[in-house]
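Summary for the funding panel

The consortium committed to producing paired sequence-structure records for every protein in the target list. Below we show the first two records in order, beginning with the earlier of the two.
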Amino acid sequence: MPKARLIYNPTSGHKPVTTSVVDILAVLEEAGFEASSFQTTEEKDSAKSEAIRVAKAGFDLIVSAGGDGTLDQIINGIAPLETRPKVAIVPAGTANDFARALHIPRNNFKAAAEVILKGQTQKLDIGHAYSKTHSQYFVNNAGGGHVTEVTYAPTWQQKSVFGYSAYLMHGVKLLAGLQPRKVRLTYDNGVFEGETVLFLLGLTNSIGGFEKILPVPEFSDGYFGLLIVKPTKIRRLLRLIKLAVDDCKHLADNDVIFVKTKTLQAELLDDNQHGNDVNIDGEKGTTFPLLFENLTQHIEFYVNF
C-alpha cells in the first residue's frame, strides 16, 4: 500500500487546520494510502526536516497543510533528492498563492484534500535560486525591488488579524515610498541594465493573491515569466496596476518589459543597501547577486485544472 504523510502547520491562517486532520487522513485512506500525520513545531525548518525524512523513507505522497511557508519548506526538503514523492496541497495560510494557481479549494480543507481523489497529477517546473553562499528552491515566484516587500512586510500577527487586507494595507504604504534600484538582469535572449522599481520572475500567475500580474499559463514548459517595471510616477504606476487587473494589458506599456526565460542572473549595481533582499515565494530570500534556473517538470503535484 502506498504511504502518505500529512505535514500540517497548526498556526497557519485564520482557521486552524488541526480541526480537519482526521478528515484529511480519512480522504487519504479513501484514496488508497496508508496515511499518517506530523504537526510542525517551533523548531527551525521542522517541516523541511520531516519532508526529507519521509522522502528518504520511501513515502509516495506528502500533503502540505499550511501556508506558502510550509509548502516552501517541504519543497526545499525534497527538491535536491534524486527520488521525490508527489505533493498535494491543503491551503491553510493567508495568500495561498500556489494553491490558487493550481485551482485547489482554499476555504475548505476537506475539499482541498479531496482533489487527491480525482487522481489528476502533473509534473511542474520549480525554480532554483543560488549564489556562492545560498541555495533555495521555489514554486511560485521570486523578485527584487521595493514593491516585492508587500508580500513579506505584514507580520504574522497582522496576517492573522487582517488576513489578505494586510497585504493591501502595506501595498498602499509602499507605493508612497518607491525608490528605483539600478540592476543588471541577464536572461536567455537579452540583458536589461538600468533602473527598475520591480522585477518578478514567475512560475505561476498568482503573486500575493493577485492573479493578473504575470501571464504564466504554462506550468511545465521549462520557462519563467520575467516582468520588469521601469521607474515611473505614482500616477502612472497606479494606471499600470489598473491595466494589470484589466486582463494583463500592462504588458503593452512602454514602462514594462515581459519576456520568457529559462535562466536569470540578477545583479545589483547601486550602493543603496536598503532593499537588497530578494523575495522568494513571499519570504525574504537572500541578497544579490543571484542566478535563477528553471528545473523543468521537477516535482509531481496533484492539480485541479
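The next record, for a separate protein in the list, is shown here:
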Amino acid sequence: MAGYPQWHTASEQGPRARNADAVSAYAAAGAPGITFALADGVGDDPGAGRAAQTAAAAAARTPVADGPVTAILNAQQALRKLGGTGDAVLVVAMPFTGGYRIAWVGDARAYGWDGSMIRKLTEDHTMAEYFRTRRQPYSPRMEHVVTTSVRTTTAPEIGTTEVVGGGLLLTSDGVHKVLPPATIDGILADPSRAAATLVSTAIAMGGHDNATALFVEPPEVDVAAIVTEPFPTAA
C-alpha cells in the first residue's frame, strides 16, 4: 500500500498440537500510522490460541495516542472479558516521529534492524533472565518460565523502550530461541522473504514451538506522519 512501510509476517505450527501464536496490524482511520502486535499463547491448548488472538487484536486496536503500555492493559481487559484461564505473552510497537514505541510482557521480543545487524530492544521476562542478570545459576527450563504475562501483569511490570530509524522485527520465542543473531541478520538481507524464511528456518533447525515473525522494513517516509485509512487486521 503506497505511503505505508512494507511489512511481512509468517507463522508455522511446528511440532505443537496447534499454533497458539497471533499477529495483528491495525491502523484506524485518521490515526498516525500502524500499530503492530505479536502474541504467543501460554501453553498448547485452544485457550492459549484464543488468548493470543484476543490479546493481539485488542492491543493493535488501541489508539496510538494512548501508547503501547495502555495497549497491553487493553489486551488484559479483553482476556478477562473472554473468561477462562487462557494467557499469552505480548509485544506491541506503535509509531511515533522517526520510530516506534514498544511495550512487552513475557518473552516475545522486538529487534531493531539497521540494514546489516539486528539489535535486541526488549529483555525477556523469564526466570532465567531474572537469575542471569543477578549472576545466579539457572536451569535451561527457566528460559521458558515467564515472570509476566498479559493476564497477570501490572502496569509497572510492563517493559518499555523505543527505537528510532531502521526496520523493526517482532518474534515469538520459537524463532529467537532457536536462531542465532548472525542467522537472523543474514535472513533479513532479503526483506520481502524475511518473515517466512525466519519461521521456516527455525522449524528446520529443530524448533519445538510455534514460530512467528513480523518484519517491518525501514520506512521511506515518516511512519508517524501518515494519515491512515481503514486497514484490515492480519492474524
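Regarding this second record: The mean pLDDT is 90. The beta strands are 7-12, 21-26, 35-41, 88-96, 99-105, 109-113, 118-120, 159-164, 167-171, 211-216.
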